[in-house]
Write a structure and sequence with these properties.
A hairpin with a 4-residue loop joins strand 2 and strand 3. 47% of the residues lie in helices and 24% in strands. The termini are far apart. It is an alpha+beta fold. This is Peptidase.
């Protein structure tokens, strides 16, 4: 029985070309980076001086030398929330819950990462927020923190944070103080005081309203009295007699049966006699 032999004629150097092709594909895949929406990137030059601070890369597809690394961070507006223990002006410890909106400066992303590291929120933003909150809250009493000063405190904290971060390549847009937690006894005392003040204001309002109503009635009564006085002074006997005659004549014109006696009444006024 004859042995069938299959002669595989593989091109010389074929294995080497395959290896080169696979290596090229791997190298290409490692040299391409896609930066997503709202993100930015900076190059870390492994064989150079580290972070390249001269250029920031935006969204899209980028080719990077294989020995370099693209560091990608969010550059859109972001928020961070925290609870801080701070002291009021009289030394009382209060807890402040707040949220801050910030965003890195895209064109200075390399400088930000080079000076503060990739975790720049923890290294830069958190300390700035805490310092600003302590500085601002320390100017107010617990009652002011709990009630009427909330919007003023937010603006002052924002101003403080922006001042601290000036020139640090990180922009803070807004601060929101969501809650101020006081010890239960202090909070109860403040709420009781505010309730009493509200009741007092309501009582004063009712008194003022009653006083105005009394003044209005007094003025109205005085006006009516003056009008009656003027009217009485103008009504002479002759005028009254004429008015009586006019009224009698109008009455006599009605269809009801009656008898009119002229000059029989007091002061010569007519007397009307009828069956109605």
């Amino acid at each position: 029985m004859a042995n069938n032999q299959i002669d595989l004629n593989f091109p010389k150097g074929g294995v080497f070309l395959i290896i080169i092709a696979v290596a090229a594909i791997i190298l290409f895949s490692k040299s391409t980076v896609t930066i997503g929406p709202g993100e930015g990137g900076v190059i870390f030059e492994s064989l150079g001086k580290g972070i390249n601070t001269e250029k920031s890369y935006g969204e899209g597809f980028h080719i990077v030398l294989p020995w370099n690394k693209m560091i990608i961070r969010k550059v859109r507006q972001q928020s961070i929330s925290d609870e801080m223990n701070v002291l009021s002006v009289n030394g009382l410890e209060v807890k402040v819950n707040g949220t801050i909106w910030y965003e890195p400066e895209f064109e200075n992303l390399g400088k930000l990462i080079k000076t503060k590291g990739e975790d720049y929120e923890r290294e830069l933003l958190d300390p700035a927020i805490n310092a600003a909150a302590r500085s601002v809250v320390g100017r107010y009493t617990p009652e002011q923190l709990y009630s009427s000063k909330r919007d003023v405190i937010e603006q002052e904290i924002l101003d403080e944070v922006q001042n601290i971060l000036k020139g640090q390549y990180l922009s803070v847009k807004r601060v929101l103080v969501e809650d101020v937690k006081l010890p239960t006894t202090i909070r109860t005392a403040i709420e009781t005081k505010l309730k009493q003040e509200q009741e007092s204001l309501e009582y004063e309002f009712r008194l003022a309203k009653a006083k105005k109503e009394a003044e209005r009635q007094k003025i109205d009564a005085e006006g009516k009295a003056t009008a009656n006085k003027i009217l009485s002074a103008s009504l002479t006997d002759k005028i009254l007699q004429e008015k009586g005659i006019e009224a009698t004549l109008k009455l006599s014109e009605s269809p009801n049966s009656k008898v009119v006696v002229i000059g029989s009444g007091k002061s010569g006024m007519p007397i009307i006699l009828g069956n109605q």
